[in-house]
Write a structure and sequence with these properties.
The structure is a homodimer of 437-residue chains. Chain A has 437 residues and is α+β, with helices and mostly antiparallel strands. Helices cover 21% and strands 35% of the residues of chain A. The first copy, chain A, has helices at 40-51, 66-73, 88-101, 122-136, 179-187, 201-211, 217-222, 232-235, 258-263, 321-326, and strands at residues 2-7, 56-62, 78-82, 110-115, 118-120, 142-147, 158-161, 167-174, 191-200, 243-248, 252-254, 269-270, 273-275, 283-286, 292-295, 300-305, 308-313, 333-336, 339-347, 350-357, 366-367, 372-379, 381-386, 389-394, 398-401, 407-411, 415-422, 432-433. In chain A, the strands form 7 sheets. In chain A, strands 18-19-20-27-22-25 form a 6-stranded antiparallel sheet. A 5-stranded mixed beta barrel of chain A has the order 6-9-7-8-10. Chain A has a 4-stranded mixed sheet with strand order 12-14-16-17. Chain A is globular and about 70 Å long. Chains A and B meet through strand 15, strand 16, strand 17, helix 10 and strand 19 of A and strand 15, strand 16, strand 17, helix 10 and strand 19 of B. Strand 15 of chain A pairs parallel with strand 17 (308-313) of chain B.
Chain lengths: 437, 437
């Protein structure tokens, strides 16, 4: 069985823990199994591995998330990289072409498509597995998961089933309604559309070729920007006659705001935090190296990262977006495929960064036009290449790289490096990649 | 006229802005005159210079504060350094001996002694000046300032005057009372003892020699640890027959807790702070480089520095001390006589620091036994001396100092340096000072 996880959104609603390069699904704040907190992506992937043994997982996502996915899941998942953002129908079509042309998946194999960020129990993935089996058994061309609603929500689309059986035909699809309409849907036994679909790979490929003119994966990838932006719901689901819905009644949460996110946290606090005895219903996440002391805080959510500090009443926390939009955004922390970087100091003509390289990983071979750089190895061992000359490095070694010098470093053990960037015009754009010969 | 400012206390009540090396009087948070916020020390010194022209100011303080005083006031004030902490009578005796033996002040000159940290208007220093004049005019041997109480406080000692004249004899001195007793004192026309005294220098010297066996300043300094710890009130004031009290009715605040300190702040916020429209009666000081966003905060005080972050209900903020006592205290930021240092990164076997050296200043010549250090000059120009060899340095230069290497740096223009410390046993104690030959 193939499982395709759709991973989108840069997401500012969970600032300062989410930013342009770290979407909410990569924040490590949920209760993990080995004592370490895990992210939504790590949690969902672990749950799939535990519930659907033998499933092959492919993550369909944009370029910016590739580093974070590799950092958190390693090389065990397939990643289908979208060259741009074109809504879910092009993304799923590209993923289908990827499965066929890159991974060689048979057209008869069932595929389940899910969002990457639901907060759910194992039961949900048992349902995902069942949905894939229903597709394999040819119960219908397209199978949907319908969530039993717990309240008349205005946030979701609705599926009106033909009957109340576990697997049922579909009478109608409905857009996000207003409150009164939602109440009427509920009285008709409607289900939320949770964005989970199953079908055979061949079905996806046929729908893609019907609506997009392309020869195969590479062709679609190369011409992705000219493909029409449209959702899979509009392009496929709502037009399909051979469609059935499978009922799911377990827990299913969207952790889209601090208020809901805080509820799923592993305990009241994460990181160096002290709450005095007069604090009530307050959650604190501290990714900084310095302690936070809270006294008399009530119904608050507090989050601190290298990007900034949020101190908010829980009710107010859902109104964060316009404030974050206005903030100057310098990414202060990012997880990369090779490790992570943290901005430590920003001065007028210099920038100090801590680089952590995972064992066996290295940077791209690159140079800068407008800045000099100095590395001081803080711990670990590895190899540095400067203008094609390789040398071994260890803690205490200093490497000076004037502007123009081609450089990279590879870690044999975990390498921590203090990098000082010097120049009048320090930007992330000033980076020229080179081939290592 | 000589003015002696007593500057004591390390003070944890204003954590995280105050720490072992930065007492509350050095926090730059009050409204200054040139648009830049100023500290209590800077404010008091400026007010004295404006109100008592020609006054010579001496600050009596401990070793730990000398750097911060020089950083904030420059070399214009005299500093009488106490070799240890022995309460106010030994401190004032040492300051008297310092005035006579080091500064050569005449025994007939009046001296006013005040705490360094009252939050007051200019009117207070007009009263200080008047108190000194009353001492010069021999109105009495000892003159006190009596603050007209605004409520029956249990925090202050009381002076019961003989009458309600501007200058009056003293009927009695009273310890800090309970509430009922304080109310009775107020009905008797009592005044708060504000810890401000005036007399001639000769009077102080006589009292010192009467109770302490010493020959002069150097002798007292050398044997300071064997002097009995006792307050000036107990040892001198309460025994004095020739004493009069001068009434002061202006504003006089003790900014000892976050609640009172916040009221004196220059505006609601300092530093990178956004308060949304639902915040009420909330003060935020942010010394960090990252933004703070507050939403729906009511009656709160928030303070962030390199040492930590306090998020507190205003009422709760006075109960901070036991929590700070329990916190592991690594000083993350300190102002020194030569500039400042900021800890940027703490790793297991390394530490990264930003050093800012003021023009014309340098570090002590020193070495470390157990750690290597690497400097990367971020901006500015100066001279480095390594094992007696001097060289010029500028932005981009890198200096490696293995353990044992004697080193220092002098700034010609303001110098910013990134320092990486490397070793298994990095401590502030590992510092051997050397003479520069």
């Amino acid at each position: 069985m193939q499982i395709v996880l759709l991973s989108g959104g840069s997401g500012k609603r969970l600032w300062p823990l989410s930013n342009d390069v770290r979407s909410k699904q990569f924040i490590r704040m949920l209760k993990g199994t080995n004592g370490e907190p895990e992210s939504m992506v790590m949690r969902v992937y672990r749950q799939i591995m535990e519930t659907v043994p033998g499933a092959a997982v492919t993550i369909a996502t944009g370029k910016k998330q590739v580093s974070a996915i590799k950092n958190q899941l390693g090389d065990t998942v397939n990643i289908c990289v979208e060259p741009g953002r074109r809504d879910t129908f092009p993304a799923i079509s590209l993923a289908a072409a990827y499965l066929k042309d890159v991974l060689g998946v048979d057209a008869e194999e069932p595929v389940v498509i899910c969002p990457v960020d639901p907060y759910v129990e194992q039961q949900y993935f048992h349902a995902v597995k069942r949905l894939g089996e229903l597709a394999a058994e040819e119960t219908a061309d397209l199978l949907l998961m319908g969530m039993e609603p717990t309240y008349p929500s205005e946030k979701y689309g609705y599926i009106i089933p033909e009957d109340s059986e576990a697997v049922s035909g579909v009478r109608a699809f409905q857009e996000k309604p207003d409150l009164e309409t939602a109440k009427r849907y509920l009285s008709q036994g409607a289900l939320w559309n949770g964005g989970v679909f199953a079908c055979k790979l061949g079905y996806l490929l046929k729908k893609a070729h019907d609506q997009i003119d392309f020869t195969g994966y590479q062709d679609l990838y190369d011409n992705y920007s000219s493909v029409k932006s449209i959702s899979f719901d509009y392009a496929v689901v709502e037009k399909e006659k051979s469609v059935r819905v499978f009922r799911y009644s377990g827990e299913w949460k969207d952790l889209g705001t601090w208020n809901t996110f805080a509820e799923a946290m592993d305990g009241e606090t994460l990181g160096k935090v002290t709450l005095n005895e007069t604090c009530e219903n307050t959650n604190v996440v501290n990714e900084l190296n310095i302690p936070i002391l809270c006294m008399g805080c009530k119904n608050m959510v507090i989050a601190a990262s290298g990007d900034g500090i949020l101190i908010s009443d829980k009710g107010q926390s859902s109104y964060i977006k316009p404030f974050v939009d206005r903030m100057e955004q310098q990414v202060m922390y990012a997880e990369k495929s090779w490790g992570s970087f943290t901005v430590l100091d920003v001065q007028e003509e210099s920038l100090v960064i801590r680089i952590v390289l995972l064992p066996g990983h290295g940077l791209h071979y690159h140079s800068h036009e407008h800045r000099d750089e100095v590395w001081t190895v803080m711990s670990g061992e590895g190899r540095v290449i400067l203008d094609e000359v390789e040398r071994r490095v260890k803690a205490g070694d200093v490497i000076s790289m004037p502007a123009g010098c081609r450089h990279t470093v590879f870690a044999d053990t975990e390498l921590k490096i203090n990098e000082v960037q010097l120049g009048r015009d320090i930007t992330v754009e000033d980076k020229i990649k080179h081939e290592l010969t």
